[in-house]
Amino acid sequence: MPGMKKVAGAALLLLILLLYAPAATYAQAQPASPPYMASPSLWHIKSGPSEAYLLGAVHVLPANVHWRTPQIEHALSRSDVFVFEVPEDAQSVQKLQGMIQARGYLPPDQKLRDKLDPQALADYDAAVAASGLPAAAVDRERPWLAGIQLMFAQMGKLNYDPGNGVDSSLMQEAAKNHRSMRYFETIAEQFALLAPDDPKLELQEFESGLKDLRDMAGEVQPMIKAWGEGDQVKLDELINGDLDTFPEARKQLLDDRNRRWVPKIEAMLKEKHVFFIAVGAGHLTGATGVPALLRADGYKVEGP
Fold first, then answer.
1. What is the mean pLDDT of the chain?
2. CB-hemisphere CA count at 13 Å for 11?
3. CB 190 within 8 A of CB 85
């Protein structure tokens, strides 16, 4: 993949949450850090009888990050329909597990390390050692699955908690309070983005991302800082900047999806509801982000 941040930033939510859990069981967590009070950006749109709030989500956060500002709490209290990228119910998880079993593992006579370019082996061995995952288990996985497992095993060591992720916690709260929930994409649609059909491309992307695993804290913590400070310019650079050198990946992971979501939001804005929309933070930044596209269509969007 074009950098591990691509997965963390463009983030394929349910896949990340499901795959993070087993990887994290091998991690030895570090001592808890002092609380960090984040103030992420919040957008608001009012159109006729409808309103919508937009919040950029970080799908897996350190346990010490507190992001529910008074403004966000107010928006949550007013909203009666919650909108996310993809469902996270038991049926969806079961469907995803079947897809992973079918497309996540190499044939029994193959090993991942045997497929790697000799120059990538040192980075691979270092990443596996740093993750704490059993080397034999990683060697059985296809590159796309191994990349995610290695990344989130290391994040587990940094006390990153999927339960503290923005959208995951909001989904649980909405379900508990019997709020209506909607989704932009299906499990199959997100899975297709992560598991490419071209084995050569998949391997190249995996090898290109291995170097990021040398310093996961250095990769992810600046992104969370920019998100927590509402610095959209910096956030766009950190999350989406590396995708600029991979235009096809950017088109599929980011721009095309934003353009598909905007008409759905505009249809919602014709209904008499207050919507709270939480999607990956990278989808709301920059000139091709959802707020910019809504503004281009004539909507008044309050926010950065």
1. 85
2. 33
3. yes
